[in-house]
Amino acid sequence: MRIEEKRDNNWFQSVFKEHYQYVRNFIYYLSGDLTITDDLAQDVFLVLWEERFNVKQKTVQSYLFAIARNHYFKHHRKKKIHLNFSSSLITMHENESPEYLMELKEFDQKLQFAIALLPEKNQSHFFNEPD
User: Fold this and answer.
1) Residue 12 has pLDDT above 50, yes or no
2) DSSP state of 128
């Protein structure tokens, strides 16, 4: 292991130990949902690891909370979009055949997957609600 890698690992471990519980509590405060809290907290620290060369020690805490907030709102938007689309399909096609409904569900899954592959900036262009 190179010296830089060891230093990066030590730095990351210390930041993780010091801030993980605070970040996790913050996400739980925002969401009220334990099922997504740990996943989003882990995502926050994955971003931190990927950006470790660009993070300053004195701003690491605010950076972590900004990532956590952004990840939560991104998750919330995706969930809302999916629920809106699914519920509109159900109400529109209550009298359709089971085969048609199955195809519709498969289409919805493919659509949600394609949307998830788009950059966040582009996702918001497709789903802004009219004023």
Assistant:
1) yes
2) P
